[in-house]
Amino acid sequence: MRKLIALAASAVIAGLVSTACADSSDVAEYLREASEAVTQKDFDEARLKIELAEASMDDVSDADRAKFETEIKQLKAVIFEWADGEARQTVQRKVDRAMEEAEDSIGNMVTWNGDSAELQTLLDDPDTTRLLGAEAVAGYQKKFATFKKVHAGKALKENLQYAKDSVTQLEEVWKEAKGEFGPDGSPNGKESAIEEMTDELSDVNERLAQLPQDDAEVNALRQRVATVATEFTTIALAEKKTEVLDDLKRGWELYENDWNGWRDEKPVTSWDTWRSEGSEKMSALGCPKTVELIDRSESWFENLEDNESYEMLKDDADVKAYVQSIAKDRAEALARMEGAADAIIKEVESKQLDEDQIDKLDYFSDTIDNNMTGSAKIEQFQARCQKIIDKFHGETAGADEATAKWYEAMKTAAADNWGNIENKFETTENFDPMNAEASKGKLIKFETDNLMGWRFSPGDFPFATTIEGQAIAGRYDPMVASAVKRIEERLGRSLGDDDNDGRWTVIARVEGRSGKLMRRTEASGDVLTDGGEKVGEIKAEGHEEVEAPIITIVAAHCGPLCVGSKLGMIDENGKLVEP
User: What pTM, to 2 d.p., does this model score?
Assistant: First the structure.
């Protein structure tokens, strides 16, 4: 059948070439070149020549137009059949090969995951269904389901035996390690035994987690592991427990003065009260110590994730009780700030606001991030504020022209006044991005681009860049955040997206701790036939998590933006105003 289609296609192409040669017009020449490209299987070139032919038919007579349109239709049909035909054969070979490899991997604990994942990806690809047909793909899926069922049975048997061997080995390792915790044990011997037992327990528990939860043999193995774990915790980690608890308390209580007395604070729940005062305390809804506790606890819990010593003892009753006490305080503090924000927004939703109050609400929305770090209600609160703001502004006639004039005026005023803003801040040039903790609390100045959304994926931080190759995560001071938001909403885009904005000049405070950014990665490769012929190219985008020192931007200049914390922003008239 394939051979017949190829012969028929060749006949069509021969006819097209003959017709094209009989006519010297541009259209005929393009069709001749398209026909030659098809015979050489250069389908992209053929499609281009057809487009040129179609675009050149404005002055062609009606009779020639009908002839050319028929030829174009025939030629497109040939391209579709040949191009898709080759793609169909390529996909068919890939699926058949993947099916064979998956079948060969049944019962193989090393190769099964990779081979089965590759097959599943192929079968889930919409192009596979388009080229092979839904019925054929369903048949492959059914056969693959049988593979998975058989493999699961073999894997269960093998994993159960492996788990039994692992539990036996755990008991033997513990039997030998016990001696290190007697009177004759050395400090180094104890530390080595703790590390070995911790690794063994982790490996065994990971293996048991892959087995059925209601199997009698598996439960018996879990009981044996629990017995060892209890003895290990009681005997070996008694001294470690004191050390871990002291370390946790030290890390938490180090900044206790920053939030001490937070329970005595009274949150502001009135819109008129909040907007009547522009202090830092009012930005925190009257509860700066509560906000500090929330922010510090967020960092403290993040650090627990990388604390291997805590991981050993996280299930100990005393350790667990201490961690839960901080979690309880954090939850109480968050509930206080969430309740205050909700009360203020509810009041605003029932009011008629003027332009000044709308600007205040915009700023209020920006403070929500800083006031309740980690809260699940941040987006909800900010969406409610934005709805009010959008309703107020509505659509205005001539907005584009007005915005363009406003942009130029703002950009000029920002450039003229930035020097006055930056001179208000004393910065240091001794900043090592690889040792940011050494510069904690200091101000640094640098010129850069905001790479958030470009090199880094959007996440917990609105600003991301690199300094000397080190990723840097940026937050905005509330006044800076309000100014950025106000300008970006007016422009309808992010600052820096237009080359006219220029680069960012930033003055930022080094926080002395790090956060996590998701850096974008990209890989590409050729798609080859079994014979090594290139038939396409694929590109894949991924992400990798990177540690990044955190900075808080307290002043910035970019295009129409010129703002400084506690100073205000420059408006189009060159005056300092509160965003």
Answer: 0.39
Would you state the structure tokens that stand for residue 541, as one six-digit string? Answer: 């985008």
* Phi/psi at 548 (5° precision): -140, 130
Cα 141 from Cα 91, distance rounded (Å):
15
Sorted by where each begins, the domain ranges of the chain are 1-132, 155-236, 241-393, 399-577
Total residues found in the chain within this entry:
579
Residue whose C-alpha is closest to residue 50's, from 29, 67, 64, 19 = 29
Question: Tens digits of per-residue pLDDT, 516-542?
Answer: 999 988 766 565 556 666 655 656 577
DSSP string covering 168-218, please?
HHHHHHHHHHGGGGSTT--HHHHHHHHHHHHHHHHHHHHHHHTS-TT-HHH
Angle at alpha carbon of residue 266, lines to 262 and 272, rounded to 5°: 140
pLDDT greater at residue 474 or residue 132: 474
State CA 168 to chain mean position distance. 42
CA neighbours within 13 Å on the CB side: how many for 153? 5
Residue range 50-61, pLDDT digits in tens: 888 888 888 788
Distance CA 449, CA 496 (A): 7
Q: Which of 168, 151, 359, 323 is nearest to 249 (CA)?
A: 323
Spatial separation of the C-alpha atoms in residues 196 and 177, rounded to whole Å? 9
Question: Among candidates 266, 337, 338, 329, which has minimal Cα distance to 298?
Answer: 329
Q: Give which of 102, 111, 110, 181 is closest to 148, Cα–Cα.
A: 102
Angle between helices 238-253 and 288-304 (to 10 degrees): 150
Return the HEC string of 226-281.
HHHHHHHHHHHCHHHHHHHHHHHHHHHHCCHHHHCCHHHCCCCCCHHHHHCCCCHH
Q: How far is CA 104 from CA 101, 146, 340, 429, in A?
A: 5, 13, 62, 62
CA distances in angstroms from 529 to 45, 86, 376, listed in the order given = 20, 10, 50
